């Protein structure tokens, strides 16, 4: 089987050797934006945004696609499946670093790290008597896939009470999971609201102006999924009104976040540049998953 690997996956000499021993003829394309030479020869592709830049229908012999991302919003997944192409995502690969990022951000806000960091730069010794505890807080996990579940597990270890909403509420998890239709019932109860939903037509602006107004005035919003899940203008207005204790944001409607965005200016908004997924264990987890999926010739997603 001819396998195209793009620069989205760190293909070391050792990993190439292992894939070749598994029976694949490996071709490498560093830049996904470049035109793929003779796409008809490839039966399998490992990529991220390759099909944003060229038509998947040009890959006439394609049998499977392994994405290096957890989301499916960068490919025409339904059309490809209808054509018999098997699609695999990177579910579970990035759960560890993303969960650590989410909990770290919440702790940073609750324990006053922005306040102390500013004072450190000024060499100013000043106590803060308004610090909060994660213990006993109510968390709502919006999207209970591998990332949402990993965040929930860590929050529960801190003594949080956790509830979830998901399109598949029958999932077996160590906390109660409700259908998405329960969002507006559960949202006003939550001290911590975590967005880990996939981006679909139904979830664009999942947190719109109305739902933002239903959140507790001192709630913390965490978004490590997709920026378009939140109505960004409404969020900025909400923050300007002094609602919400703070936000931990890794993703935005347009990236990179514009330098003139008001989101940069709020004291209790922590911003990272779509970086929450980074961790030193990702490469091995992804490679293990890729080998498993490449060998599952009859498996479908």
Features:
12 strands, single chain, 301 residues, Rossmann fold, 10 helices, alpha/beta, 7-stranded parallel sheet, 5-stranded parallel sheet
Give the structure's gist in a few sentences.
With 301 residues, this protein is α/β, with parallel strands linked by helices. The chain is 30% helix and 17% strand. It has two domains: 2-93 and 280-295, Rossmann fold (3-Layer(aba) Sandwich); 95-271, NAD(P)-binding Rossmann-like Domain (Rossmann fold, 3-Layer(aba) Sandwich), CATH 3.40.50.
**Overall mean confidence score, pLDDT:** 96
Number of strand segments: 12
CATH C-level class of the largest domain is Alpha Beta
Strand percent estimate: 15-25%
Count of helix runs: 10
Whole-Å distance between the termini? Answer: 20 Å
Structural class: alpha/beta
Number of structural domains: 2
What order do the strands of the largest sheet run in, or round the barrel if closed? 8-7-6-9-10-11-12
- For the report, how would you describe the main beta sheet? 7 strands, parallel
Please tell me the CATH architecture of the largest domain by its name. Answer: 3-Layer(aba) Sandwich
What is the global morphology?
A: elongated
Spans where pLDDT lies below 50 across 5 or more residues: none
Classify the helix fraction into a percent range: 25-40%
Over the alpha carbons, how many angstroms does the gyration radius reach? Answer: 21 Å
CATH superfamily of the largest domain: NAD(P)-binding Rossmann-like Domain
Question: CATH topology of the largest domain, anyone?
Answer: Rossmann fold
Order of helices and strands: EHEEHEHEHHEHEEHEHEHEEH
